[in-house]
Design a protein that fits this description.
The chain has about 375 residues and is an alpha/beta fold. The chain contains 16 helices and 11 strands. It binds NADPH dihydro-nicotinamide-adenine-dinucleotide phosphate and magnesium ion (MG).
Length: about 375
């Protein structure tokens, strides 16, 4: 790899975005940052732009436009939703890293594909909401999409060199989150602080709550369905509290391949940018003797209702995964604001799915309309 890749990082100020810039910083000859976006953290965006000298940046909060513009007189500065979509649609980059959180990340994924730009996708919500539609666009525009999510990076690596018809099933691993051993009777008292305290991974607030409800695993099953073109029956979840095995693939002859590593998102982020190479890094390396034992158990679907909701949404298809995703997101924000209880998250999602008007083959317009409807529904529920 000697040619410099031009990269845009959408959501540069988040957990994945900051980790991605750490990777880029360590290989300045390989990667050049062309575009950066932030939503609210203008100061961090300015700091990043001063370090990486992008051609343009966009700040979501238009009230902070002047501040960013003044701090970066040499840089093109955009703002608001349109600024983000504009940069997502520019075709003078090789790879767009989508590190945005939530349904806000879906349209930028679509814009980049339409611009013919390859995507390193961390924003799993894009595929949960519009996986079928996005797969069609990838084909049409001959664009590659590389997963960043650690489970999907693992499966991708396990599948390299294999024939799709030999796959028996994918096994998505999950840590089980902070409430794996908490009795179901105590779920009613779960506080925001407890739910934000993930045992293995340091992540943004929304995905941390998704990990606590285990909706994250459900969203990942839907993500895997579209990334690897397999039906839900061929995708299983196994709980692995140490988060060392990042996922597995079982083949028809009973052979199982797994990908291992320390739980550090820099590894799958770098691989999505450096594929097919595994580039040297001095960060802490896996020492299995030190870890000692790896354990596994079945997920508890009674305790973690969101997992079953996601499997059901995948089976029902059409508009249901859209509503599942958006309802979850809004319910998570209401929980973070201490407006609803932890247990109310799956209850509100179920209500929204039951109340919505089913669309069998949602087009982009239908998806955007459903997003708005679901946001309003959860806000008033
Ligand atoms: P964060 O909340 O840490 O970061 C989100 C980024 O998106 C920030 O740059 C934020 O800007 C920006 N943003 C937030 N809301 C909006 C919006 N409405 N419009 C435009 N930009 C917005 O999230 P994470 O980095 O944790 O997660 C990003 C994605 O990666 C999610 O889809 C998550 O599921 C996935 N993922 C994350 C992992 C992790 O370890 N964090 C692991 C695997 C997947 P600002 O901060 O300036 O407000
Ligand atoms: Mg994951």
């Amino acid at each position: 790899m000697s040619v410099t890749k031009n990269i845009s990082v959408l959501g540069a100020t988040g957990s994945i975005g900051v980790n991605a810039l750490n990777v880029v910083r360590s290989y300045p000859d390989l990667y050049r940052i062309k575009y950066l976006t932030a939503h609210s953290q203008a100061d961090l965006l300015i700091e990043q732009a001063l370090e990486f000298s992008p051609k343009a940046v966009s700040i979501g909060d238009a009230n902070q436009y002047e501040k960013v513009k003044q701090a970066l007189p040499e840089v093109e500065v955009l703002s608001g939703r349109n600024g983000l979509l504009e940069l997502a649609g520019r075709d003078d980059v090789d790879t767009m890293l989508n590190a945005l959180v939530g349904s806000a990340g879906m349209e930028p994924t679509i814009k980049s594909i339409q611009a013919g730009v390859d995507i390193a996708l961390s924003n799993k919500e894009s595929l949960v909401m519009a996986g079928d539609y996005i797969n069609g666009l990838l084909k049409k525009y001959e664009v590659d999409l590389y997963p960043v999510d650690s489970e999907h990076s693992a499966i991708w690596q396990c599948l390299l060199g294999e024939s799709p018809e030999d796959i028996k099933r994918l096994v998505v691993t999950g840590s089980g989150g902070p409430f794996r051993t908490l009795p179901i009777e105590s779920f009613i008292n779960i506080t925001v602080d407890q739910a934000l305290n993930h045992p293995n991974w340091a992540m943004g607030r929304k995905i941390t709550i998704d990990s606590a409800t285990m909706m994250n695993k459900g969203l990942e099953v839907i993500e895997a369905r579209w990334l690897f073109h397999l039906p839900a029956e061929k995708i299983d979840i196994v709980i692995h509290p140490q988060s060392i095995i990042h996922s597995m693939v079982e083949f028809l002859d009973g052979s199982v391949k797994a990908q291992l590593g320390l739980p550090d998102m820099k590894i799958p982020i770098q691989y999505a940018l450096s594929y097919p190479r595994h580039l040297k890094q001095d960060w802490e390396q896996l020492d299995l003797a030190k870890i000692g034992s790896l354990t596994f158990e079945a997920p508890d679907l009674k305790k973690f209702k969101c997992i079953q909701l996601a499997f059901d949404a995948l089976e029902e298809g059409g508009s249901v995964p859209v509503v599942l995703n958006v309802a979850n997101e809004e319910a998570v924000y209401r929980f973070l604001n201490e407006e609803i209880s932890f247990n109310a998250i799956p209850e509100l999602i179920t209500k929204a799915i039951d109340a919505h008007e089913f669309v069998e083959h949602p087009e982009l317009n239908d998806i955007l309309a459903l997003e708005q409807w679901t946001q309003a529904f959860i806000k008033r529920s």
